[in-house]
Specification:
This protein has 149 residues and is mostly helical. 40% of the residues lie in helices and 4% in strands. This is peroxidase.
Amino acid sequence: MQYLIIVTDRIVGGHTVGTAHCHSFKQRLYDFHNTNKPDPTISSSLLQLLQNTCPQNSQSDSETFLDQTPNSHFIVDNAFYNQILAHNGTMEIDQNMALHPLTSDLVKRLANSPDQFLDQFGQAMVKMGRIGVLTGNQGEIRKTCSSVN
């Protein structure tokens, strides 16, 4: 059985908690789209924080929180949406949700309504839980998300 995953389900995804390693966003800090400049959509305060966490020539692959809200890093709440509206999105895809005309209104609604966020997040998790997981020879559970086992 196939399920339709709509924009709302993707937007209310799990980036309200969790971390990202430097390699997944470092290009935004130093060479955004081959410009040799940082992504202009990152706030100056987040840029400084991320550059301190992920120095340009460092071989270390440190990590930082996806939700930059103090005391909200491990809480599923709508604070993340206020952060991306303030240009504090760690990942480019997250920041783009707040900027894109097709998704910005929904991001604003989620930022302004904790109850709506929790309701839609719950619905999205139930829907995603119904997606058939392929196991055995039909599927793969990756040990590292970005690479095939």
